Amino acid sequence: MNYIKIESKTALRSYLQKFEDKGLHIIALDIEAESNLHAYGEKLCLTQIFDGVNNIIIDPFKIDTYTLKLLFENANVLKVMYDAGSDLSLLKNTADIEIKSILDLRPAAELLNYDKKDLHSVIAFELGIFLKKKRRYQTHNWTSRPLSEQAVDYALNDVTHLLTLKDVILAKLYAKKLFEPFLLKNLQIQNKDYTRDPEDKYRKIDGYGRLRDDKKAVFRKVFDIREKYAKRCNMPPHNLIHKADIITIATDPKFLGNIRFSKRVGTDLIQDILHELRTAVETV
């Protein structure tokens, strides 16, 4: 697939200026991200655009946040997306970026009651285009460089047909008198506050809500120690200490001796972690 690759703030600014000079106002937009699967933390790894003529790949690792905001936060450019919620949350909480002027087609899939509501299934149903679902890219390490051409093709497939799909879906919504509910759903997506509550990182662990308050205090200390060392090792926290083990440690500190650490963690570091964990459970 032919595409333009943007790898610097100068190149992105130039593209955005040319886009504006042509009087254009709409793009299809998607991102690829890392979310504690291959490395520590969440981060924007790739941005894909189709502007009606060109496929664009933007490497955010080489572009500062301020320049990325010129794209994402430009209210004069309509961004057609599909199921944008997780992308909005990630960008807000990792880079304080808020995507402006979104048209999310996912609510249309709900309103039109498609049997299968994932993007590729909707494209197949409405456009007769059957995109190959390569499962390996659903868990692909988008932090790795260079990106293979196959990975880029996979990423671009999620935007190349969005503008055509948008025209078909909007016409169908209008014909079925569902256009206004669709607009309302989009306003709700756009206006939602995606800022995460700091307590959410604890609450999302199954079993945390059932702990007594004193055990929750132990849990939070153990959780934060795991985060500290996972960040230091640049590894997913669950690879350092499994989330279920944190619950067990909170209820039974003796379990500390049964933790199985990744082979990536050296013996000396393991001793440091265990020392901190023992201190934490003893002082709560």
What's a concise summary of this model?
With 284 residues, this protein is α/β, with parallel strands linked by helices.
Structure report:
- The protein is an alpha/beta fold.
- The protein has 2 domains: 4-191, Nucleotidyltransferase, domain 5, CATH 3.30.420.10; 200-283, Orthogonal Bundle (DNA polymerase, domain 1).
- The protein is 50% helix and 12% strand.
- It has 13 helices and 6 strands.
- The protein has helices at residues 9-21, 65-72, 85-95, 106-111, 119-127, 149-160, 162-175, 179-191, 200-203, 213-233, 237-240, 243-251, 267-283, and strands at residues 4-6, 26-35, 42-50, 55-58, 78-81, 102-104.
- A 6-stranded mixed β-sheet has the order 1-4-3-2-5-6.
- Helix 1 packs parallel to helix 2, helix 10 (213-233) crosses helix 12 and helix 10 (213-233) packs antiparallel against helix 13 (267-283).
- The mean pLDDT is 95.
Which terms would index this structure?
single chain, 284 residues, alpha/beta, Nucleotidyltransferase, domain 5, DNA polymerase, domain 1, 2 domains, 6-stranded mixed beta sheet, 50% helix
